Amino acid sequence: MEQWLAFAKGPLFRFTFTLMLLGLLRLFILQVWGIVEAYLRASDKNVPMKSLLKTTFIWTFPVTRLHRIRPFHSFTSFFFHVGMILVPIFFDEHIGMWEKSVGRTWVGFSKTVADPLTLITIAAIITLFMMRVIDRNSRFMSDAFDYLILVLLFIPFTSGYLVSHPDMCPLPYNLMMLIHILSAEVILVLLPFTKLAHVALYATVRLSSDIAWRFVPDAGEKVAAALGREGRV
Amino acid sequence: MIEVTDHKTETELDIIKKLIKHTRKREFKYAFYIEHHKHETINRPRRFLEAFAAVLKFSNYKFLLDLYSRISTKCTRCACTCQIYQATGDLKDIPCYRSNLLLGIYKRHFTYAGWLRGKFIGNGFITDDLIDELAESVYHCTACRRCFLECPMGIDHGLLTHLARYILSEIGLIPKALVVATREQLEGATHNTSAIPVPALLDTLEFLEEELKENFGIEIKFPIDKEHVDYVFFPAVSDFLLEADTLMGNAAVIHAAGDANNWTIGTQNFDGINYGLFYSDFMLGRIIRAEVAETRRLNGKNILIGECGHASRSAKFFVPTYGYPNPPPVINIMEYTAKALAQGKIRLDPNVIQERVTYHDPCNIARSGWIIDQPRFILRSFIKNYVDMTPGGRYNYCCGGGGGTVSIDEIRSYRTKITGKTKAEQIRATGADIVVAPCANCKKQLREVCEDNGLDNVSVVGLHDLILKAIRFD
Lengths: 233, 474
Known about the structure:
heterodimer; A: 0% strand; B: mainly alpha; 23 helices
């Protein structure tokens, strides 16, 4: 078991983390390249960067928007994201792991902060799952993966909490730790290949939407010519 | 056209290779293939994919479709903002569902991941039924883009509706009302969507000048084909037929502001309507170019758009694209009037309009935040009993006839009872006697909404209709 644990913590973590990093980087670069290409092809280059940045910032920290529509869902989703981002990166125990793998360290928080945050995140995951099941709109729009991803996110947080509270842990410490690490690594691998990719692409969305409205001046003619119907209404 | 005969003896890989070869021959950048399906009867799926491929190759949509298909989390927050879904309760009217119809086709036929996924799961390929559903769905939408404001991801469902309509138009799926009007505007003898011949236009304007003289005792002219002016005026052409008060209000304001000899209406092109915005980038560009050409013919400095939401948006946001080089600036008449009023050039009598007045924000000028305060500033300056709708401004509800659907008379009951239901409730809640809607399409739609929803005492007018009543020259 210890060997498995050492493997999961060491080479496997480095591999999955690198895969995630490269995958997300690839998506980000492709997206930036797409934006640049579209910008160069468009003749209207007057992009309102300031307002786009402002809107992106507002929606990154949407505290003023949460109460407006579906407040319960919005707040749940907000806290889900807070825990999802903060705990893996800033929990003291994780920082030690980051130091070993990435070689850097930063200021984090202890168990007294991590525990409630983790519990809130777990509660948020369960709530979001239930809302997908109960809410008519969400249920209609969801496919199997939308449910599966919540289950996959539930595992590392729950196992992580149990690992740090051995008295509550129903399984041997090492086994639970292995589950915790492996399930987190599954998430790392899934990040670039699923809708979780929004962690890298989110900041580019509003800019992309704006630039896509700046059409290529002669695109219409070329499309019509390619389809053999020049100039007809 | 790519011809695929029955390849039952060949392996699927052979078919794919052959199709990729064909598409390369036709210089399509993105290879695609389709499965045979029992519903494929008239070759539409293949033609749709060809059109899709051509659009992807020559336009700017590809990177956006990649992005949207990667990040869509389907949170359904948009469902709560969509007045159509709120009215119908039909799950297929959820904006995200509509977008996913197009994104699904894109992923399945234009990405390796989608193709691979489709191979395993065995569905998702394009069929006649899917094209029918998409066509139905994108013309259910009024493209008001209200959902865009509340999408936490920033997905612009309105843009995807626009794209889907564009692709569909390339295979001939366009509402007849839109295509007939656009054909007359671009290829007809009259160069306008209502087919008004120039002599009829001149007669109308002469009559309006007489009316103005009768009302105010002064000569207020509609200058025709005047060159070297600051403003070349393009109202929605229906104003010449149906909205005489709006036009007279426009002329009165321009006269009062001191630009009586500084504006003109061109006889080669006097129609601001641009249905290309609703269904085709190609037509959008051609109509914009015609507007710009008329402005240049008259050596005009600015394009002045009348009271019309989509005409204003298409000119403001697409003249910089299609009007190069040196695209002329675009101004909406309400911006012009608000500026003249702020400069004290216009005098409006505050005692003329006693009724309760409310203002409807046309989506095309309000959603982006462009024209929201100007009309309110004008209205509050001379109307004592003004009341705002809730919500209003950027978050307004569509009149229900957006995206060109107002032109389709066959769906009137859908427009007034379903898409216009929320607006009817909003108007009722204000208790207003007069609804100001500075848009030709919104006006037509709101009159029908009021008629069909028991709001018989509410009159729907343009902003300059009220100004015409209140403006004073003495």
